[in-house]
Amino acid sequence: MSRMVNCSKYQKELPALEKQPIPGVHGEKIFAEVSAKAWLEWQALQTMLINEKHLSLIDPEARKYLLDQMWRFFKNEAVDEVEGYTPAHDG
After folding, report:
1. Of 36, 30, 33, 1, which Cα lies nearest the Cα of 16?
2. Model pLDDT, residue 70
3. Model confidence pLDDT, tens digit, residues 34-90
4. CA–CA distance, 22 with 68 (Å, rounded to integer)
5. What SS3 class is residue 15?
6. CB 19, CB 29: distance < 8 Å
7. Spans of all domains in the chain
8. CB 35 within 8 A of CB 7
9. CA 49 → CA 12, 30, 70, 72, 74, distances in Å?
10. Domain with residues 4-74, CATH architecture
C-alpha cells in the first residue's frame, strides 16, 4: 500500500510522493505535507511561470520567487496568474 499524507493543498488524506522531490528542509516538508497530486499540479504551474516570466533558475531572486509561489500554492493562497492560460474544466 502506498504511503498517505494529509495534503496541505487539499486538506485531506491523499497518496504521498514516493520520495523527497527536492533536497533540504523544503523537500522534507513537501514530502511530509504535500500529496503527489498537488506536487504534479505545482510542477505544471511552475513550468508555466518560468516560461511566461522568462525566469532563469540560476538567478537567486527567481528561485526565491518560485519558492514563495510554491508555498502559496500549497497553502491555497493567491499565486501569480499565467496570462492567456485557461484551465480545463472537468465535466
Report:
1. 36
2. 98
3. 999 999 999 999 999 999 999 999 999 999 999 999 999 999 999 998 876 666 666
4. 15
5. strand
6. no
7. 4-74
8. yes
9. 27, 20, 11, 14, 15
10. Orthogonal Bundle (1.10)
